[in-house]
Write a structure and sequence with these properties.
CATH topology of the largest domain: Rossmann fold
Shape: elongated
GO biological process, one term: tRNA wobble uridine modification
Organism: Hypnocyclicus thermotrophus
Number of strands: 14
Pfam families: HydF_dimer (PF18128), HydF_tetramer (PF18133), MMR_HSR1 (PF01926)
Strand order of the largest sheet: 2-3-1-4-5-6
GO molecular function: GTP binding
Strand content: 15-25%
CATH architecture of the largest domain: 3-Layer(aba) Sandwich
Structural class: alpha/beta
GO cellular component, one term: cytoplasm
């Protein structure tokens, strides 16, 4: 199947498998997927780094299986592997903690504690029942958890484990509709999509594609134009569109060309709600408007694309902030999974739309910021604030808009 036809990884249920070395984690992955995805060996520590595989598992549906290194790995390199395994928790929707008939030890309890701290549901999988049954004493301890006894090697009770995963997976792992609650069947929606150096050749970017699909799912009528053709598009529609959605980089021009009685927002602001917490992200606008000389700002990208000469995160946003808010701002940058654990040195975090992150990881980053007392805002909200059109860009989201007005 072409990658273009697959469910994006960020929209799949993320199932991570944790446990000590040689508990049969890789064997369990192969049993769950009915494929030889992971290397299996009797030698402890075969899996050295987290390995992700996006796939369809019936009857679960689209998911990502993440195999992690043993949480009891040893040595300096082993400690790095353990940390990478722990970092996986940030994006895990549901975890499988694999043990055997010997029961829990301190490593298992540590992982359970971390899973609870991150509000991550987990199932204890007692593996290797083909070798030995668990004792009655251990079974009493297990009754405090959701658990299942099975043999990954013999593929016994694998279907029952799948049923448990479905039953206990968080209902919120799949994001709400991008804009299904904002439109009605038959509404005309205009999408403004500029073609610039940052646009991948021959295709649209993921938020644009997902928004188009969501409009179709909700029986809306789609009109697409570049920013220069927006005014002509509006003049030639037979009825007023319900909503104009623009790339955030063209907010100023699109706002000027769109009549005030037509709702306007951006793909990035839609994704602030779809992937994260729009209420929380809007709070960062106040801090942005009041940045002072020598304040430090972190600009975070979820993906690791090659930066263009006019890159939105590394070039345009810093330039706009210096031109419109405060020239003496210090910027740091991070990308991919390298999101800092300590944010206390920053006055504000400006995050991309997070289209490559699953909802759990984006919410985790928002929570990490708020715990550190550092407001966070995303690109779309940031650009709307800089250009003085945040009020207008929030109007489609009535509850957030009213709360924002009350806070002003």
């Amino acid at each position: 199947m072409s990658n273009l036809n697959k469910t994006p990884t960020a929209n799949r249920l993320h199932i991570a498998i944790f446990g000590k070395r040689n508990m049969g984690k890789s064997t369990l992955i192969n049993a769950l997927t009915n494929q030889n995805i992971a290397i299996v060996s009797d030698f402890a520590g075969t899996t050295t780094d987290p390995v992700s595989k996006a796939m369809e598992i019936l009857p679960i549906g689209p998911c990502v299986i993440i195999d992690t290194a043993g949480i009891d790995d040893v040595g300096e390199l082993g400690n790095l592997r353990i940390q990478k395994s722990i970092d996986v928790i940030k994006k895990t929707d549901i975890a499988l903690l694999v043990i055997d008939y010997n029961g829990f030890n301190n490593f298992d309890y540590k992982i359970m504690e971390l899973l609870k701290e991150n509000n991550t549901k987990f199932i204890v999988v007692v593996n290797k029942t083909d070798i030995q049954s668990i004792s009655n004493e251990f079974k009493t301890d297990l009754n405090n958890y959701k658990y299942i006894e099975l043999s990954a090697k013999n593929k016994t009770k694998i279907n029952e484990l799948k049923e448990l995963i479905i039953k206990h997976s968080p209902k919120s792992f799949e994001q709400p509709s991008i804009l299904g609650d904002l439109i009605s069947p038959g509404d005309d929606i205009i999408l403004v999509i500029p073609i610039d150096t940052g646009m991948p050749k021959g295709r649209l970017i993921l938020p644009q594609v997902q928004t188009i699909r969501d409009i179709l799912d909700n029986d809306g009528i789609i009109h697409i134009s570049k920013e220069r053709e927006l005014r002509w598009t509006l003049e030639n529609l037979k009825k007023k569109p319900k909503l104009v959605i623009t790339d955030s980089q063209e907010f100023a021009k699109v706002s000027a060309d769109t009549p005030d009685d037509i709702l306007l927002t951006s793909f990035s602001i839609l994704f602030a709600r779809y992937k994260g917490d729009l209420f929380e992200l809007v709070k960062g606008a106040k801090v942005l408007k009041n940045l002072k000389p020598n304040d430090k700002v972190l600009i975070a990208e979820a993906c690791t694309h090659h930066a263009q000469p006019d890159d939105i995160g590394k070039v345009k946003i810093p330039r706009w902030i210096k031109q419109n808010i405060e020239p003496e701002i210090e910027f740091d940058f991070c990308s991919g999974r390298d999101y800092p654990n300590n944010l206390t040195n920053y006055k504000l975090v400006i995050h991309c739309g997070g289209c490559t992150l699953n909802r759990k990881e984006m919410l985790n980053r928002i929570e990490a910021s708020t715990k550190n007392g550092v407001p966070i805002i995303n690109y779309g909200l940031c650009i709307a604030t800089i250009h003085g059109i945040l009020d207008r860009a929030l109007k489609p989201f009535e509850e957030v808009y009213l709360e924002w007005l009350d806070s002003e």
